[in-house]
Specification:
Distance between the termini: 7 Å
Number of helices: 11
Radius of gyration: 19 Å
Order of helices and strands: HEEEEEEEEEHHEHEHEHHEHEHHH
Strand content: 15-25%
Number of strands: 14
Oligomer: single chain
Bound molecules: iron/sulfur cluster
Strand order of the largest sheet: 8-9-10-11-12-13-14
Helix content: 25-40%
Length: 347
């Protein structure tokens, strides 16, 4: 791999694993910050920064930060611990949650209790509690914007997996009916039964993400005790039959105490089925640290940037071996790239 690309990936990994970005009291952001209700930065006020072809979403703070964004002529640069870190940085707008994607959370309340997830712990003023018709109309409004490229939907499991999927499929069908058929739609459901996958495809979804969360069964039991590991794997396998190879992805969270070998075993297991893993560095915050440490029985260590880059390199090699790529995705995290070092896109 080219040295410049590796050094950019390493800087991105330092940002992903590091603390917030401080912005001065009088600093006026050129775009509204994003406040996500799902994903690794849920609950935090964040902005998207781009540099050397990479982009990253970072929590911002007016009080303190490991990094500091400073004005540099017409643009910006980034300091780390007071020292120059990245010379030229741009601030990019999000559409909804992600740059170029209208990415909505169909429901934040959850019947499950995965210890890393903060969705269900967020205040209702943050979760916004949008009903499906309101989401449809916000997506259609967003589709008028020049930077609109894709639609994506995620959801916590509000009542039951199948009822949640019905709500998601309703939004997909309405949006699909109204939008240019070339606009891709991605969905990230928890699957109750195979028919849920059929429903989402029939409604017009093009890509699907079904998260295994961790490939370490013992960690899975401790952290996602109410979910069914084997059912998720069967759902992924079935989803590949319905959506196609390279149209199904799955999060493996990294940083829960699993080994690299276990992570890569998971990547390869999924790849053999035609599914492209997303290696998602664990975001530890004040809402999930205690429940996670209690469940796991050990203190959490922050992910090192070296581990993030090393795993991304191995991830890429495994995908190549199975003729897969993250480039086959046009929605959700592989297309967004804000939270991970993404093989084929960042290195
Ligand atoms: S990478 Fe995924 S979770 Fe992160 S901002 Fe983008 S779409 Fe959201």
């Amino acid at each position: 791999m080219e040295a410049g690309m590796r050094s950019t990936a390493m800087k991105k990994a330092i940002l992903i694993s590091g603390g917030p970005v401080r912005i001065a009291e009088d600093f006026i952001l050129p775009f509204l910050p994003s406040r996500s209700t799902a994903g690794p930065g849920a609950g935090a006020v964040a902005i998207v920064l781009t540099f050397d072809g990479a982009r990253v979403k970072k929590e911002v703070s007016r009080e303190k930060g490991e990094f500091e964004l400073v004005q540099k002529g017409e643009g910006y640069s980034l300091l780390r611990k007071g020292e120059p870190f990245i010379e030229d940085v741009e601030i990019r707008p999000t559409l909804f949650h992600s740059p170029e994607q209208a990415f909505f959370n169909v429901g934040s309340a959850c019947i499950y209790d995965c210890k890393f997830c903060v969705s269900r712990k967020l205040d209702s003023r943050i979760t916004k509690n949008l009903d499906p018709d309101r989401i449809v109309s916000m997506i259609l409004d967003a589709s008028e914007r020049e930077d609109f490229r894709a639609v994506a939907l995620t959801s916590a499991v509000v009542d039951s997996p199948s009822e949640t999927v019905l709500r998601m499929a309703y939004v997909v069908a309405k949006v699909r009916e109204a939008l240019d058929p070339r606009i891709p739609i991605g969905v990230e459901p928890y699957i109750g039964e195979f028919e849920d996958i059929d429903r989402l495809k029939a409604a017009g979804a093009d890509e699907i993400k079904i998260n295994i969360e961790t490939f370490d069964r013992e960690i899975f039991r401790k952290v996602c005790g109410k979910l069914d590991f084997d059912r998720i794997l069967r759902s992924i396998k079935y989803a590949v039959q319905i959506f196609g190879v390279g149209k199904v992805c799955s999060n493996i969270i990294v940083g829960l105490g699993e080994t690299d070998d276990n992570v890569l075993e998971g990547v390869e297991f999924l790849a053999r089925m035609g599914c492209v893993a997303t290696l998602r560095p664990l975001k530890i915050n004040e809402m999930n640290r205690r429940p996670l440490e209690e469940a796991l029985g050990h203190p959490l260590e922050p992910m090192s940037p070296e581990r993030i880059v090393r795993l991304a390199e191995e991830h890429r090699m495994l995908l190549e071996l199975y003729h897969l790529s993250t480039l086959s995705f046009r929605t959700m995290c592989h297309a967004c790239t804000c939270c991970d070092v993404v093989p084929f896109r960042d290195l």
